[in-house]
Amino acid sequence: EVQLQQSGPELVKPGASMKISCKASGYSFTGYTMNWVKQSHGKNLEWIGLINPYNGGTSYNQKFKGKATLTVDKSSSTAYMELLSLTSEDSAVYYCARDDYDKGFAYWGQGTLVTVSA
Amino acid sequence: QIVLTQSPALMSASPGEKVTMTCSASSSVSYMYWYQQKPRSSPKPWIYLTSNLASGVPARFSGSGSGTSYSLTISSMEAEDAATYYCQQWSSNPYTFGGGTKLEIK
Asked: What DSSP letter does each residue of B8-38 carry, written as one string?
């Protein structure tokens, strides 16, 4: 069974940086691209970017360049997203989502709530 | 970027009623993807490549469309279908989502 287990909720101060993890299991980690999605106010979904765990190649939504950095650790089948210089606009739920070739985002993590507040 | 506009934003339907929601793209896309989300849950894949049902999706759902106009239809509304549905295009970076259609049961 494919599972994506994300790290827990975070409360961070404005200006800080933080990293979310997404541990994958149940499939070959390097065989599928991992995407990251932001959901603000419980509604709007935004694609942040993707990473190819096989070679570390990335593609970002221009809006999130400089805000998010995607990496992977193949040894632990874990994908990471670092969020930089956080502001209140970054308060949201963040999901990792594995695509399945032409089937779209077939598997989603449970989401990580990030709250930016002093 | 390609903007996806979903309509209506909010709708309600009675059990057994036929439901249709639409997704309009600002530029032509090859396919449309749909996701279902219920409160306090992650989005679930619902329809892929415009008209293919994801695993476990009831046959009363269907998807259609091409170019800039796509739709999701429920042939006969059931209480469990109450949720928010999002369309997504995967043709052009950035891979955008629509604003969602919230479907309620009457």
From this structure: -SEEEE-TT--EEEEEEESS--S--EEEEE-
